[in-house]
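Quick start: what a row looks like.
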Amino acid sequence: MAFTRKPWAEPYKIKVVEPLKMTTREHREVKIKESGYNTFLLRSEDVYIDLLTDSGTNAMSDYQWAGMMLGDEAYAGSKNFYFLEENVQKYYNYKYVVPTHQGRGAEHLISQALIKKGDYVPGNMYFTTTRQHQELAGGTFVDVIIDEAHNPSVELPFKGNVDLNKFQALIDKVGAEKIPYITVGATVNMAGGQPVSMANIKDVHDLAHKYNIRVILDATRVTENAYFIQQREEGYKDKSIEAILREFCSYTDGATVSGKKDVYTNIGGFVAINDPDVFDELRNMVVVYEGLHTYGGLAGRDMEAMARGIEEMVKQENIEFRVKQVQYLGDLLIEAGIPIVQPVGGHAVFLDARKFYEHLPQTQYPAQALAADLYIESGVRSMERGIVSAGRNKETGEENKPRLELVRLTIPRRVYTQSHLDVVAYSVIELYKHREKATGLKMVYEPAYLRFFQARFERL
């Protein structure tokens, strides 16, 4: 056999397998209709390859599973909490840690602790749950990401960067006292998993601190961001992921983390902070909303798995394979002429539904329709990231119409092989060949909050 390139493979071997269920097209047509054409409402037993999310769907290692047996389930002072605290301080570089049941709990605590009614919270593109918590706390989210992030076809190495001019303009307009913090997502999920450069986060830190504004990092996928810095930014190619991570976090004042992504666990999260007064407020609030400050709604075994996952996430072979696997799927689709967000991000490949279904107006929810059609075609479950996820303007009630109308193919860590991704690529390519036959959707049920989770649709 003649190789055209050096082969590469998973940096692990498979010890336990979970059977996948194969279904017929007729079965899937029934199930997606019963689910209101919303892939979130499908039962997992009716899904073949599940690319809905990388949140809590990762495979834990033998090291993590062994730690699960060491869970200290004491209500107060669990030894697993202190191990988690030690590793957050060591790897993320923050002083204080409050565990939560998942990242959403961390977002809620930091929003309630820092935001007052009438405040403004800038950020490098919204994330659904983050913005919702900020709005519930009385704040208004303001997008300050660079313009290029809203264009799927523009290729930049750090497409998630904050536009400092936009940030300064908001400060000038509303006053620094109305801005409790800036949220920086690394990587930027809604932009296609795009990274933030080290130079940019340092500049954000300097500008924010000039006006006594905090920098709060969404560090859920910050290890992927560190890898992109290592590969793309001058001066970092010889630095370890661990060192890059610590430096990146040093330019921020705190972070919210969903342990269900980078850290490989099925549940868990935390909020980390450097300010002792804010920490005291968070520690008081967590008792009300999550659990005691040394467990935050988690079992001891879950905190142990998170602590061990933090050690594993910074290993070069783990993060390198993770990003390369996503790139592999992206390359297959690019070679076939499928419109996707470029460059390919760290956790998912995003189909450009506007170009995929050019004949469907955004008011007919093309990304939602594309996700449903892909499931019918192949049993592959993906998710919408477009007008449905964007929700409604909190002042006018009108639908937000983002420029990005995307379908996210999210790769869980250490779960699928390249053969699975070959099947996914083939399915997308086959669907693209018949794209002109697609029909739009109308929304028939809309929940009050985060409608993409539970909304229901019918075919037009």
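That is the whole record. Residues 62-313 form a domain with the Aspartate Aminotransferase; domain 2 fold (CATH 3.40.640.10). The chain has a mean pLDDT of 96.
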